[in-house]
Design brief:
The complex is a heterodimer. By secondary structure, chain A is an alpha+beta fold. In chain A, about 45% of the residues lie in helices and about 15% in strands. Chain A is built from eight helices and seven strands. The longest helix of chain A has 14 residues, at about 170-185. Chain B starts with a helix and ends with a helix. The longest helix of chain B is centred in the middle third of the chain and has 24 residues, at about 25-50. Chain B has one domain. Chain B is mainly alpha-helical. In chain B, helix 2 crosses helix 3 (about 55-65). Chain B has helices at about 5-20, 25-50, 55-65. Classes of the chains: A alpha+beta, B mainly alpha. The interface between A and B is medium-sized, with 29 and 30 residues.
Chain lengths: ~190, ~70
């Protein structure tokens, strides 16, 4: 499933350009809907979800300034302190290319052991045709089936199950689902 | 509108098409994904040229931040 440069979508190019800046500053993973879309899922999206490791204000400021230099702007503020307050309070922030509405990159800090597990088990997915870090296929399926659960998410999970048939671990999915229940849902299923 | 089982059937049909046709799906998919962004950008461009269009865009952007 090799993809040539000309095969890349506007979304692909946006994500690659954004990642080129972020990877110079911190660990990151791209998660959720874009993982399904980059594997051919035919649905729309306005935002791409990214989790980054928690940074100090000083280090985040360096990342933010570098993003601005590379043609991105944050919709919440130009002030890195204001943006940092969002992030440190577990609220996501959104970056777009200068003057554009979409696509947008929705960034949040890793907030619990599940997020750090996602970062620790990050993978490159050659089938995507992109040289970027993703959360694992098992992680994406587990979150969509156990936590997010909208029609769109269940369809994304089904799509990934078919694309990666015989190539993912059901045992790992079940382990992650248990962790989701313990960490995010306080054991309430 | 409630999504009936035909939605999931279509998801499965398309995913199986991708697996079976690794060189055919990409062009269709790229056009579909790009079209949504291109159409949206064209709309905002048209909106910006209407009376109060730029104000509406600012309102829409602020609403987007709140989501």
């Amino acid at each position: 499933m090799k993809r040539e440069v000309s095969d890349k979508t506007i979304l692909d190019e946006f994500v690659e350009d954004f990642v080129k800046v972020v990877e110079r500053h911190c660990n990151y993973i791209v998660v959720s809907g874009f993982v399904a879309i980059v594997h051919g899922r035919s649905r729309g999206t306005e935002d791409v979800d990214m989790i980054i490791e928690k940074l100090s204000l000083k280090d985040f400021d360096k990342l933010h300034v570098n993003l601005l230099k590379n043609g991105f702007e944050c919709m919440q503020s130009v002030d890195s302190k204001v943006i940092y307050d969002y992030l440190i309070n577990a609220t996501s922030v959104r970056y777009v290319r200068d003057g554009e509405f979409l696509p947008e990159m929705e960034i949040k800090f890793a907030k619990d052991e599940l997020d750090y597990y996602q970062l620790a088990t990050k993978v490159k997915l050659p089938l995507s045709g992109l040289d970027i870090w993703f959360s694992s296929i098992e992680m994406n399926i587990a979150f969509k089936e156990e936590y997010l659960k909208s029609d769109k998410d269940l369809e994304d999970a089904r799509h990934l199950r078919i694309i990666y048939k015989d190539k993912f671990s059901e045992e790992e999915i079940n382990k992650i689902k248990k962790d989701i229940n313990r960490v995010r849902m306080n054991g309430k299923r | 509108m409630v999504r009936d089982k035909s939605h999931m059937e279509q998801v499965e049909r398309w995913a199986n098409f991708i697996r079976a046709n690794p060189e055919k799906w990409k062009k269709q998919h790229k056009e579909f994904i790009d079209a949504q962004i291109i159409m949206s950008r064209r709309f905002y461009d048209r909106l910006s040229k209407t009376k109060d269009g730029k104000k509406k865009i600012i309102l829409l952007r602020n609403k987007q931040i709140q989501l």
